[in-house]
Request: fold
Amino acid sequence: MKHLVEIIALLAMLAPLQGRTDDTTDISLTRLGIVGGATIGGFVIGHAMLNDLWWKGTPADFHVNTDDDYRYALNADKLGHATFAYIATTTYADLFRWTGMDSASAVWSAAGVATAYQTYIEARDGFSQKYGFSWGDITANMVGISLPVLKHYYPGLRALDLQISYWPSQDFRNGYYNAIIDDYTSTTHWLSVNLHDLAPTSTFKDIPPWLGIALGHSVQNLDGLGGGQHRIFLALDWNLSRIEGLPLWLRDIMRTLHLYHLPAPAVQISPNVVWYGIRF
Reply:
């Protein structure tokens, strides 16, 4: 549930992005104040909600989870941490560019905010009897935070995006989970690739820039003890922000929307082959 709270707080701040500039050092203190105020407000609200949903109960001494951390969800949770950290950093980079920061300052500032927040969450987990501090979560967070920074310096990586999608699993329909975002069998994490950008001078150059492919991962039949199966998918991917002629404000909305994998034709390639006309 905590990832949903975090994502809502971030996406709620995207409304002011109209008129954003990409490379300027003329920072608007008003816009910076809006971003800062929204961040503080989102943090306070998010903390209150997470404290009630995740951290309530008998306090515990700080401890590191080395027991079930790497097996209860077949590490699908680590992909979740990397994906959310990527979403947070990407969103904040856009917000900081909107304030007038140049691209380099914006992405490094975004990485700093995401690192601080994610580290706080993990440290607070360390005092939770149920969860505990996880070095695996920290590592996954840093992978997700680093990708937008690397994309800034290495243009070849800009064809890549991390995405997430949800669709109710049978476990969720059977009432095993209170919220769909707590159910990794209902969650798919995606690595999308824009073939047009990846190799613009190759045979991919004629592929529309709004059409890509995505590699997805989910899990099934989890027992919380390391049992279950990985599910791997290959799907088409729609990047609607790349449609020509969009106004700036709509392009920004569509670029943010691309952090969620939209329904598309797909095939499950493991553990067995299953074709989907449309997979959500």
Residues 267 and 273 are 7 Å apart (CA to CA).
